[in-house]
Amino acid sequence: MNDVLMPLTISVHRRDLFSSNFHNENENRLFPFNTNTINWYLISSINSNMSNISPLSISSSSNLINLTNSTSILSMSIFRILPVAFVLSSIVVLCICGNILVILSVFTFRPLRTVQNIFIISLAFSDMLVAIMVMPFHIVTHILNRWIFGNIFCQIFVTSDVLLCTSSILNLCAIALDRYWAISDPIHYARQRTIRRVLAMITIVWLLSATISIPPIIATIFGSDELRNFNELQQCELSKNKVYVIYSACGSFYIPAIIMTVVYAQVFCETRKRFRERAKAAAKLANVARTHKTIKKKAENNHNYHYKRSLSSSVLHPTSSSLKCSASNGSGLENFSTDDADEMSFTKK
Hints:
It is built from ten helices and five strands. Helix 4 (151-184) runs antiparallel to helix 6. Strand 4 and strand 5 form a beta hairpin. It is elongated and about 115 Å long. It folds into two domains: 1-71, no CATH class; 78-274, Rhodopsin 7-helix transmembrane proteins (Rhopdopsin 7-helix transmembrane proteins). By secondary structure, it is mostly helical.
């Protein structure tokens, strides 16, 4: 009996080992066995008998499998873990505090208490929940390189991740639509933008997010493993079911991205159109003001010209009234005192 050595890829599990993640050139089967203390794998092949592939020690302690050259539970050294954990934890704290401040500022600062800022409250609330319910578990998983919180909480974690991230994106989409309607039809939309309408839009945002994120939990409740998020390698990740991946990607990212791109392009075009209209109106007003100023200046110049002309003509050619006045004034020489004989004689001459 010849031992046959073949290239293998073996998945090691915390419990009894049974998996389809076993690849070989021939058809192989990996029988379930307990991982207390084992020095060899039980491998059955169609073209070969049972073989002692290689001495390998597998032990189970604290739900951790250690292979030969024992593998640490940490995916990186402690000197890398501390700064990474500090930086990521600081980001989480800043995210939580920042979104809380946004919510409080809208509620406490009177000028910000407007109907459109309810969208900002919804967006900040979803981002704050991402920082509380999603990011800390991502940090732990990144450091340990495995999911340690169990299968049930994995379903809740992935669903919360998809729900909150999708709601954040859809809130941005709702804000884009609100801005577009406010710019394209400001007079009518100002009357239509009521608290009831805004709350209805936010409710639709969260319901759409729920319909995108909840299918894996429903599938798990009904006993289906096709949308399972917790795999055999103790990794908690989004289901790799192609239909669900396409469905969630379109609903969470591609469709909102297309809507926001089109809407903000329309906002840009509408804003540029408004600026051009305002520039034309301002130029027209400037021309009117310039024309009025020119006319006024011409009128003033014309008035000054006629005034100077009348003044000069009155000096050169006195009118009859001025002559009468001067005659009457000239005949009153006797009114002056003439005590000085020389002055009288000069006057007579």
